[in-house]
Every structure is written in structure tokens, then in C-alpha cells.
């Protein structure tokens, strides 16, 4: 189902209210800003780090409670894009496009971001850690962080793009 307008409607989210307390609660759908994309998650992975978040074993500098889990995901663009988001994406994404997204939300201004090392951004901000993740009916993600899935890639395989890219990056550093 494609939602033409989700702002103000309600859905469900898997919320860690505080360490040790996880609930499925109703929440308003996010209203994406002009440079964001509204996404309906299709598949969300839960990894060991998510379990550490639930248990309160992640450094508080990297987690903000309450939060919606879900940094490994794939989904579908849920509605028409704002002009700014469409421009940022060069018209590649439209409602119904299957996508994945980057978890880290870089500031774009710190020395590491300017050097292309957005995964080391000094203002650390990440879906499922410091802002709500994809274990919800809908999420809003900045347009530059959203990428189309290739035809034939399943939603399950799409949700594995994030952990696979971590492994790829680690092995690339060893091999060079």
C-alpha cells in the first residue's frame, strides 16, 4: 500500500523506552522535511548491537532513549517526494521505488565529512541509535542517504546491505 500523505496518521514502532524496556507502541507517522524521503520499511534486521541497545550496553554517547530500533533495513518509497528531495536524488526515486538507506547521518561540515569519511563524522548521528530507526510503520530519511535497490534484489537481501558494507569496508582496509 502506498500512502500519499502520512503526516498525522498513526502506525506502530518497536521502541526501546530505556534499557530493558521494549514496547510495541502507536506513534504518529513521521512528516518528512523538504529534503527527506518517507519510507515504508519492508524488512528490518536486528543484530547484536540492537540487543546491546536493549540491554543498555552501548555507550550513552552513541544512544538516545527512547528510540526505535532498526539500522539494517530495506523499504519502499511511500509517497511523492518534495521538490528538494527529488532534486537531491536527480529524479531517481519515485513512490513505489524499493530502497535501502545509509544509517549514519553525516553533518557534512566536519573535517572527516569533508574528507569523505562520513562514517567517522564528528557529530555522530545514526538511525536506530540517536534517531528513530526502521522498526516502524514508516520512517523519514534524508534524500542523499537513500539508494534504490537493483531489480531482483529481495527485501531480505536489501536489509543486509548495511552489515555487508561494514564487512566490505573492513576487508578493503586490510587488503590495501
In short:
The chain has 176 residues and is an alpha+beta fold. The protein has helices at residues 48-55, 83-88, 111-114, 155-159, 161-175, and strands spanning 10-18, 21-28, 36-45, 67-68, 72-77, 98-101, 139-142, 146-148.
What does this protein structure show overall?
The chain has 176 residues and is α+β, with helices and mostly antiparallel strands. It has a single domain (10-175), classed as Alpha-Beta Complex (Quinone Oxidoreductase, Chain A, domain 1), CATH 3.90.180.10. Helices cover 22% and strands 26% of the residues. The strands form 2 sheets. It has a 5-stranded antiparallel sheet with strand order 7-3-5-6-8. A hairpin with a 2-residue loop joins β1 and β2 (21-28). The longest helix has 15 residues, at 161-175. The termini are far apart.
Main sheet summary? 5 strands, antiparallel
Number of strands: 8
Low-confidence stretches: 1-7
Kindly report how far apart the N and C termini lie: 45 Å
CATH architecture term: Alpha-Beta Complex
Rg, nearest Å: 16 Å
Spatial arrangement of strands, main beta sheet: 7-3-5-6-8
- Structural class of the helix and strand makeup? alpha+beta
Oligomer status: single chain
**CATH fold type:** Quinone Oxidoreductase, Chain A, domain 1
Mean pLDDT: 89
